Amino acid sequence: MTDTLQNAVPIGTLPIQFVPNAARRVLVAAEVEAVPEGIHRPDGREVWIIVPRAEPAEAALSRFHRVIPCDWSRYIPRDLPTGYFDCIIGENLLELTDHPLQVLNCLAAALREKGLMILAVHNQQYHRYVTALVSGRWIPAGADTIPAPGPLRFYTAASLTSLVLGCPMLDLEVCGALEKDHPDAFPLDTSGMHHRGNMTVGPLSPAEYPQWLTRRLLLVCTRNRVPPKW
User: Among candidates 78, 72, 60, 81, which has minimal Cα distance to 29?
Assistant: First the structure.
């Protein structure tokens, strides 16, 4: 299940450490500010970027082989070259679209067979997000934010898995924690309950508790042999 909000989205850091060194053609879907310089290594790698705005920063034009401005809350371009990229990596992508399955299908079609799709996705169960939503404050004070170009969706590991199962071109490899808080940030009492102000959460089982500490989820999929279908 996903919740849709019209608000702002925190910028994360693109997890480029998961991009294979052998990937020579990489497609990035992220704000330019979220993309570390290391995405261009090894030297000679061809890197394209899809940015969620009509007029990308001038800096993007010099950093990437091709810059594709796109309101990805509504669509992802279907004219991407089919079977071209070795790896696609993105963040805030599935959260900012009205049509997440169509986005996955468009991007999957641009991957070569056995190519990787790597996405960082905000976790609906993260304790700070839950607290902010319950209290009517989505963005915690002091958080870095960008204007959201469209609806904001939250996902859990289970809902992400279900989403990928609806995309026949992708095989799920990993769906787990990317960024986690220390347990001191979300302490439980002896009965497995958490108390914060007038909010009480729990009791949480040992299996449930780690989900409340997980800020972002890592989704990794492999492109299979199923041909694209629109």
Answer: 72
pLDDT at 138 over 80: no
Most confident of 51-55, 119-123, 144-148: 119-123
Domains and CATH numbers, the chain: 4-123+147-180+212-223 (3.40.50.150)
More confident residue, 96 or 117: 117
Contact 73, 150 (CB under 8 A): yes
What is residue 134's three-state secondary structure?
helix
pTM for the full predicted model? 0.84
Query: How would DSSP label each residue in 137-174?
Result: -SSPTT--EEE-SS-EE-B-HHHHHHHHHT-TTEEEEE
DSSP 8-state secondary structure symbol assigned to residue 16 = G
143-156 pLDDT per residue, tens: 555 444 444 677 89
From CA 92, how far away is CA 40, in angstroms rounded? 21
Phi-psi category of 136—alpha, beta or left, where left has phi over 0 and alpha has psi -120 to 50? left
Residue 200 CA from chain centroid, whole number: 29
Identity of the highest mean pLDDT range in 30-39, 156-165, 177-186, 187-196:
156-165
Measured in whole angstroms, the distance separating CA 225 from the mean position of its chain's CA atoms is: 24
- Average of pLDDT values for 199-227? 87
Q: Give the DSSP H or E segment for 132.
A: helix 127-134
